[in-house]
Write a structure and sequence with these properties.
Elements lengths: L2 E17 L1 H4 L1 E14 L5 H5 L17 E10 L4 E13 L4 E12 L21 E15 L4 H7 L2 E3 L11 E9 L2 E2 L2 E2 L3 E9 L14 E4 L1 E2 L1 E4 L2 E4 L12 E2 L15 E4 L3 E3 L8
Parallel strand pairs: 7-18
Antiparallel strand pairs: 1-2, 2-4, 3-4, 5-6, 6-11, 8-11, 9-10, 12-17, 13-16, 14-15
Length: about 280
């Protein structure tokens, strides 16, 4: 025995939408859909309720609203005719975005004073091992989204912003966290993804540009120098091989003035439009 045909009854369809925006930014949704069911003689309410021609428990409303089947009421009105009233319940989350600004402090090496002057001894020898605390602003964004591309997020984790993001110029924002929570019922997503993203903003602190705020900065120095086109070990004032790296000019020859030290910025992150993350 089985259900032969199911026809939607427009007269039995309706809905109730209650807004409680100022409480939790949601709209409570209750929807009913009525169906006329043609079955075989001897079919019972259980057969009707389990028919694959009717929406199943946990199925999303066909309109795309975040409402899901919560109950099916079956009633006979003849030997082979039945009515099935399908109830949908859900919360229509509005497009609320929660922003939380905080700080993140790291200890970074320094070799220059605030003015940009090299930190050296009285004999112009670079002083090493100095560091300073750098406090970056961190924005935590919480919201619901309809789709999450985890592969693209993996690429974004190795990037900085190529666009101006929340007033911060390109190169200063870096995605440092992205957590996703979802709920599946019968392998079907039953609500939007809860997303918590963390973006760290850095003002360049090492005499560089905003575009290079997240670059790795290093002093051009080494144990080998260019002597007349021949690469040789650097020597100290006594003519012995230098046990420490020496400053180098752009052409690899030795630089003796620390104020003229060359610093190279190495890019370690790609550049992507953060507006495309869909967080704001």
């Amino acid at each position: 025995m089985s259900v032969i045909n199911v026809t939607k009854m427009w007269s039995k369809s309706g809905g109730n939408f209650t807004s409680i925006k100022y409480v939790d930014y949601a709209t409570k949704v209750s929807i009913t859909e009525g169906y006329q069911v043609l079955a075989e003689i001897g079919d019972d309410a259980s057969t009707i309720e389990q028919s694959l021609l009717l929406p199943r428990h946990g199925s999303q409303h066909p309109s795309g609203r975040l409402a899901y089947v919560s109950g099916i009421q079956v009633e006979p009105f003849g030997p082979i005719f039945w009515t099935a009233i399908v109830s949908y319940e859900g919360d229509m989350e509005e497009d609320a975005v929660e922003l939380d600004w905080s700080d993140a402090t790291t200890t970074e090496p320094i070799d220059r004073e605030w003015s940009g002057r090299a930190i050296v001894t009285i004999n112009n020898e670079p002083v090493e091992g100095l560091s300073t605390d750098i406090s970056d602003q961190v924005l935590t964004i919480r919201r619901k989204v309809s789709f999450v591309d985890t592969y693209a997020l993996g690429i974004y984790r190795r990037s900085t912003n190529s666009d101006t993001y929340l007033g911060w110029p390109p190169g200063t924002a870096h995605l440092v966290g992205y957590a996703v929570k979802s709920r599946l019922l019968n392998n079907v997503l039953v609500e939007k993804y809860d997303v918590t993203a963390r973006i760290q903003f850095r003002i360049p602190y090492a005499n560089t540009t905003p575009a290079q705020a997240w670059y790795k900065r290093w002093r051009h120095e080494g144990l080998w120098v260019n002597l007349g086109g021949v690469i040789q070990r650097a020597h100290d004032g006594q003519g012995q091989e230098s046990p420490k790296p020496v400053l180098l000019k752009a052409d690899g020859t030795r630089e003796t003035n620390p104020d003229n030290a060359i610093f190279i910025h190495s890019q370690v992150y790609g550049s992507l439009p953060y507006g495309s993350l869909g967080l704001l």
